[in-house]
Amino acid sequence: MKIFIFLNIFFISFHAFSQRQGQALMDSLNQEIWHTKEDTTKAKLYFQIADVLIDIDLNKSSIYADSGSFIAKKINWKEGVARSEITYGNIYNFRGDYYKAISHIRQGYHLYKELGNKKEMGNAVYAAGMSYERLSDYIKASDCYFKSLKIFETIPDNDRSTGNSLSAIAVIYFLQKDFKKSLDYSLKALEKQESAKNTVGIANELTCMADTYHEMDDSANAVKYNLRALELFKKMGNKEGQAVVNTQLGIVNRRNSEIALGYLFSAKKQFEEIGNSTSINYNTCIGEIGRILLTIVKQDEPAQMPAVKFGLPNNKTGLLTMACTYLQSAVTASLQTGDKADVAGYSKDLAETQAMKGDYKNAYNNFKNYQQLTDSIFSQDNKNRIAALESQGAIDLKNREIENEKLQISNQHKKMWLLAIVVAFMATIAALIYHQSNSRKKNNTTLLKLNNELDEANKVKAKFFGILSHDLRSPVSNLINYMQLQKRKPGILSEAQMTDRENKITDSAKSLLETMESMLLWSKGQMEHFKPDISSVAINSLFEYLQKFFADTTGVRFTFSGEAGLTVQTDENYLKCIMLNLTANAVKALRQTPDAQVNWKVWQDHNDMHLSITDNGAGAAEAQLSALYDATSSSGAKNGLGLHIIRDLTRSIGCKIRLDQEIKPGTTFILSIPVSEGHKMAQRYEPGNEGHR
How far apart are alpha carbons 447 and 436 in whole angstroms? Predict the structure, then answer.
């Protein structure tokens, strides 16, 4: 029968405890708290009291742990925060909430690892093993215990912690029903606890050994060691320990129902007095009471049993009902704590009790649950894996011997490996040199191509500046000639001639200003890192701009049409310059055309915004407009620079321009600008917004 016999041996956060135990120690520590002003010391004292109270009063233990944790976090004491996490883990272990315990312990372990505290790391691993054990995960539990033992054995004067790990390993073998190995490890643990003069540890180990002897059917030694442990617990005033030992004495004396129930009801009362009626040990106590009651009924002697003495029914039906109640409570509590071994054991007894009552359906379900859990817990595979963990230390030692032998062989191979590395290194260098040579050839070819392109671009730009000089010189030359004529022969021109000449000079000046503005914007577009300023531009504002700019142009009728309220995402200045150049070219093309007309139109399809300009002039051939599509072409015409500017500006803002040859007569250019995703028409124009001149 498994009973949880770990009490103060699970206090894995001891820091220089004095030899005084129990209430006397707690009172002493409380006095120290009142007299200390240093926060770190005060937090340590709170944690020590919480440790002492774990097996006396879990609620008070939690209160002291909270106080210590608050101070540690307040002063940002990392070691204190780690200590609080381990203390919480211990408390949750004793409460049976093992998943919360593992969570706190894991956090404490990582904090101690950051601090490089090996002893507390070992304590944390040990505490995690205790949680896994309660969850009946014996593989993980034994792994944790062996790891903690390995850590503790490297720390001098650490018999107490080493004894705790040995005792925990003994229990794992006990749970796997390997009682001989369990007793071997318990004897080693007892020796360590006696060496450390740890009274609590000694009492706990005596309890462990008593339980092991009981399972080995050695009742004499079981009673002997339990009584020795009970005496020590009474001296310490440890009611939790007394309750556990009384439970074990009840189990040992199962054959004598009166004696067994006397011990068990005494233990039940002690558990309830200290407010520990939810612990796994209390659960064991009530489960054993249920089993004793079942045994009495099976012996068919309810009249002779001590039922009346303990306030129990003195008939078979009443005893079965009460046994069922106790066993069901034990199963339920074991399910809540995740203790699979207890769930299995009590389910078996509950199934038998229910069958005797005639509740065969529930009896079958509980017995089936017992078989499934037993197969999973006590499988040979688990035993083999735990045995492998035990022998891991010996295997590690043998592995080190093998590694030493391999080291000698390895030294003989080092020269061969060194030679191979040198050869590989030389081969790598040769490959790199070859690769570098090929890369240099490719780079030279690319550089030659770029130089040719640069030379061609310089030639094109030279032609551009030749055209520009002509466009800039013409209006300035006209102005100078007019001023010189007025100076030399002031009266040679009539008033009408002077007015005509002034108008022409004014037109030339406007044309000059227009060309200069276009050139400035175009030169910005030629900058390597210049980016257009993209924003939402209303089409209506662009049309109004053109109307105002060409307001003084006579002989040409301007119209603007299309859906109202359209906007486009682009650089407003770039687009204005493009539209201005196209309009100016159209006006120039219509000088000799009667009833000259220029029409701007806007529309939108699924992907693009389209702007078109149409004039009713003589039209233009595709060859005349090559500058719009070919960056290397040039024009010898007087004002041919505008097409180059339009080409570069449209490319800068991602706009496409094309000549629509299907619309006759005249010339039609269409600008297509991509519409950004999510861009929508804000509103439509109201009727009457179309303008013309």
Answer: 16
Strand 608-615 with 596-604, pairing: antiparallel
Contact predicate 685/564, CB 8 Å: yes
241 falls within a domain: no
Residue 671 host element (H or E):
strand 667-674
Torsion of CA 563, 567, 568, 573, to 10 degrees: 110
Band of the pLDDT at 693, cuts 50, 70, 90? very low
Is residue 26 helix, strand or coil? helix
Write the CATH number for 289: 1.25.40
- Which of 626, 630, 632, 628 is CA-nearest to residue 456? 632
Name, in order, each residue with C-beta under 8 angstroms of 69's C-beta and a sequence gap of 6 or more.
80, 81, 84, 87, 88
**Residue 557, SS3?**
strand
Residues 192 and 288 in one domain: no
Of 379, 412, 437, which residue is a domain's last? 379
The DSSP string of 464-524 is HHHHHHHHHHHHHHHHHHHHHHHHH-TTSS-HHHHHHHHHHHHHHHHHHHHHHHHHHHHHH
Residues 33-86 pLDDT 10s: 777 878 888 888 888 888 888 867 888 888 888 988 998 899 999 999 999 999
Structure tokens at 543: 């049309």
Asked if the structure places residue 97 within a domain, the reply is yes
Q: Which residues form the domain of 456?
A: 393-492
Residues linked to residue 608 through DSSP beta bridges, in sequence order:
674
Q: How many domains does the chain have?
A: 4
Is the pTM value of this prediction over 0.70?
no
- Say if residue 302 is preceded by a cis peptide, omega within 30 of 0: no
Measured CA to CA, the distance from residue 25 to residue 364 in angstroms comes to: 52
- CATH number, domain of 601, equals 3.30.565.10
